[in-house]
Amino acid sequence: MMDNEVWRWVWTGLALLMGLGEIVTAGFFLLPFAIGAGLAAIAAWTGLSDLVQWLLFFVGTGISFLYVRRFMRAQDEDGGLVVGPGRYVGMEARVLERVDTAANTGMVRVEAEEWRASTDGKPIAEGRKVEVVALRGTRLVVREIQ
To answer: What's the whole-model pTM score?
Structure first.
């Protein structure tokens, strides 16, 4: 068994390491571990036993995982914040180069950005207005606005 003085620094170091790791990674995966280690560090600094420290680490991590999962699911629901090229779905664009999926051609401008485009319908001539209906890979799928 390690001395409580050692556990204080192990838990504190682990909480800081996981917290810093969370900052540089995506997905909120390390955050629950940082919270659990932080709770265990508090227990160690207040002189609670090793068993209590481990229980706080596991319970704190588990509860944090459940809460973060609930939070992330709410972000994924409709009406959540849409980032990346998915934000263009539903917007109007202008055809810069004839959109012809069979010929593998097509370029549109949405807001101030230019994107490769394809269509599920007939080819769309240059200069026409289109609506972005989907995103497939790195191309916007568009349909002509009548």
So the answer is: 0.53
